[in-house]
Batch of 2 targets.
Target 1
Amino acid sequence: MSPRSSILSTADARRPLVAASAVTAFARGGYHGTTIAVVARDSGISPAYVSKLFPTKERLFVAALEECMTRVVEALERGADAASSQDPDVVLDAMGDAYAHLIADRALLMLQVHAQSVADVPEIGAALRAGLESVTTFAKSRSGASDAAVQRFMAYGQLCHLIVTAGIEQIPAHWATLLSDGITHPG
Amino acid sequence: MSPRSSILSTADARRPLVAASAVTAFARGGYHGTTIAVVARDSGISPAYVSKLFPTKERLFVAALEECMTRVVEALERGADAASSQDPDVVLDAMGDAYAHLIADRALLMLQVHAQSVADVPEIGAALRAGLESVTTFAKSRSGASDAAVQRFMAYGQLCHLIVTAGIEQIPAHWATLLSDGITHPG
DNA sequence: CATATGAGTGACTGTACACTCACTCACCCC
DNA sequence: GGGGTGAGTGAGTGTACAGTCACTCATATG
């Protein structure tokens, strides 16, 4: 243990930390709207080193997205484990609540929306599909719900994304409450 | 450019044409990923003149989004008019089919996804909310369906956006068909 | 014809950004 | 203590792009 200001780490140890910073940074500005310099600042390292850890911006975004989708599945898992019964609809509901709780800070939600926006970049599209596959298959197999119920689960998840990104939950008009009704918000 | 080939028009007549080009251009690359020069080329005018017609890129995007949302409502209207009965659920279904037909070329769909992505830009967020308000209120009032049915209509619309942007419809796996099932695709 | 008005542009400016490279320095093993 | 390996950076480079401006020219009217 050197008492020195040894901030040295291994590249392999640093990469996931940078990916975690990238999640919040890209969530804020999207793919094109976020610079490597911002991710570097959030990570406490130089832009040059970010580029060394992730050879292209695209790869950095993919790493962030993978991190994001992993956290989503973990949240669903925790929700399912905490369900009051193992009835498929109850489990699915519990997953929905867990998801709503997870995205209270908006970062994981926004990143998914941004990813949709640039899914035509092949590597990003592939990562998005992989993430959706794990979410969907997990929701289906863990809950044991019908295909239709899982589809509905995902559909209302997407509606939730729209409500948050567009800021609909703060609108008092009837059309807005109609959309938000029953969608669990962050406190 | 040779003065012969230039066809003079009024700025007010040209603006909507440029907005229409902007719809497809922004749909392709999103807000940050699309340059004014691209819109200019698609419109057959110079970048400088695009900037004269729309003083900022932001305003240009807003114009495109407004055009987009207007076309969506018009499509819903046509769908409702073509419904086989005036039963609320039937009308809503007909609107869904009309929407699916409208977004066959993906441009109007992609633009909405891109708009979500940059909805934190105040003017764009406002335009998005305005568009969603007109879609939602129209769907509700024209169909006469329950709030819950309209909410479901919108939720599955969002799921449709996800399916198309992520390219899920081409995946033969079960998780993918589960999501796409019953969502009308373009031929 | 003379002059005004407005459409439309070429050339430019300032800036921002992804990525590179030569380099420094910390740590480890002898 | 000396040399090798890899962490980490400062200073660039090339490029792309939003917005500006002085200008040309077409048309309209007296």
Target 2
Amino acid sequence: MVRAGLTVERLTQAGAELADEVGFEQVTVSAVARRFDVKVASLYSHLKNSHDLKTRIAQLALAELADRGATALAGRAGKDALTAFADVYRDYAQEHPGRYTAARFRLDPEVAAASAGARHAQMMRAILRGYDLTEPDQTHAVRLLGSVFHGYVSLEAAGAFSHSAPDSQESWSRIVESLDALLRHWPASASVSAY
Amino acid sequence: MVRAGLTVERLTQAGAELADEVGFEQVTVSAVARRFDVKVASLYSHLKNSHDLKTRIAQLALAELADRGATALAGRAGKDALTAFADVYRDYAQEHPGRYTAARFRLDPEVAAASAGARHAQMMRAILRGYDLTEPDQTHAVRLLGSVFHGYVSLEAAGAFSHSAPDSQESWSRIVESLDALLRHWPASASVSAY
DNA sequence: TGCATCTACCTAATAGCTTTAGGCAAATGA
DNA sequence: TCATTTGCCTAAAGCTATTAGGTAGATGCA
């Protein structure tokens, strides 16, 4: 009996590939076992359970996304940085739809704290350094950027923009441009706004 | 043998309630059957399958959300309309987290076309009439609003904003205000922008 | 009212996924 | 070379989905 050489890392990687091929929801312990031509029960020496597998795929995706973000941000600032970072999200979701979905998998608080999630927020703040925002507006802006990136990408993945003109790429560019403009002219609180 | 009086509507309603209680992912044909104290197979006279059940819950949620949106928009315009409509999304997601998730369930194209989804887009365009946008910018703006509303609400539901200051309500208000400002001063295309 | 039909819900069965318990053989290391 | 560790296996129980076919309650018509 030749051993398959299973490790948590290989299982996670295979799960991530499977997610991209058939969707994160369809990733099961059984399907991963099949991929290694191994009995299902064998995976339970490496994984706690199904939730554990999904959590690991989510962490992998978050880390990959953060790595790409860091690379994109290197040597860039201002609108250039904003655009590059935004494209990282959108491109990743298009190249790896299953992993992108995995990245939105709800993690347990402790796991989330130890994940690459924090790096994402740090990078957004780094981008915002190119704009003139101070707390608490910077935090509001981080949340806005996160919402737009995630919201757009997931609506697009759901096909929401695929059956109407203009094409999605154009909206994406214009939206990122408009965010740049908004960040450059972030309005003061409504009650005192003279915008 | 007393009959339970199952109908597609009651099953859908029960499924929606279940979704709010335990999460849309946990809504199963079995769980709904249990709720009516009926055998699982009995539901298959009313529902095609599990996917059918989920689709119906999604349609219910989309319709409820559209109804609330329409009510909120009545007699309002401009920033007032924008704020009220935005709050409809956020409040609905908070009151009915399972239904809100259901509303994002990917529908088959024909089902989607017949759903309340179109009403949502129409309402956004109605709001934008209060701003000075013409095509294709209006479409870009519809997509931006959809992205921000959905993105913010789903990140918030995932707990992304719950462990840091300032509190989520404040960010939400400021973000909606900033969108209002952005729509009032929508930048021309980048290449010719003098913003 | 009585009977035929319809249909709502049932039992039974198959199949897939999850998870645990316990076993054997390959790898490791003294 | 032998003991130990450990990787993968078989077996089994429990849950969900789905289909086929049966029975009794509800409905409609004479």
